[in-house]
Amino acid sequence: MPSKIIDVKEYTVRAHKREIHTRIFNFVCKQCEQPTQRETYGPRPLYCEQCRAPQPPKKSVVPLKKRKPRAMTYDSGKGIAG
User: Fold this and answer.
1) Are 25 and 38 in contact (CB under 8 A)?
2) CB of 10 within 8 A of CB of 63?
3) How many other C-beta atoms are found inside a 10 Å radius of the C-beta of residue 49?
4) How far from 35 is each of 42, 43, 44, 49, CA to CA, in Å?
5) Nearest-angstrom CA–CA distance, 36 and 45
6) Rounded CA gap, 53 and 63, in Å?
7) Residue 69 to residue 72: CA distance in whole angstroms
8) Are 36 and 50 in contact (CB under 8 A)?
9) Contact indicator for 30, 46 with CB cutoff of 8 Å
10) For the chain, first and last CA: distance in Å?
């Protein structure tokens, strides 16, 4: 069977367990300027838990299908046949 290359824009995977590695950061909050400690898996946070509560994950934006053009309605006696 021949192989081919396709471009995958978006895909869905089955539910599974994954281990993520978190670190505890000690830093000064940018807004309230208080020393704080926060556990995260990404880069060093800028804000404490009180200043920036955790946000729900963003959903991917899928463009809507193109709609068919609507039929034009013309008033009789204007401009077309003159």
Assistant:
1) yes
2) no
3) 13
4) 19, 17, 14, 12
5) 10
6) 29
7) 9
8) no
9) yes
10) 64
Residue 67 tokens, joined:
């709609």
What are phi and psi for residue 43, nearest 5 degrees? -75, 175
> Which two three-digit tokens encode residue 46?
């800028």
Residue 3 confidence (pLDDT) = 72
Per-residue pLDDT of the chain (82 residues; tens, 9 = 90+): 567 777 777 778 888 888 888 899 999 999 999 999 998 888 888 988 888 876 777 775 555 566 677 787 777 665 555 5
Structure tokens that stand for 60 in this block:
């991917």
Q: Give residue 74's pLDDT.
A: 72
* Identity of the amino acid at 28: V
| Residue 5 structure tokens | 């290359």
Q: What is the sign of the dihedral through the CA atoms of 30, 32, 35 and 36? A: negative
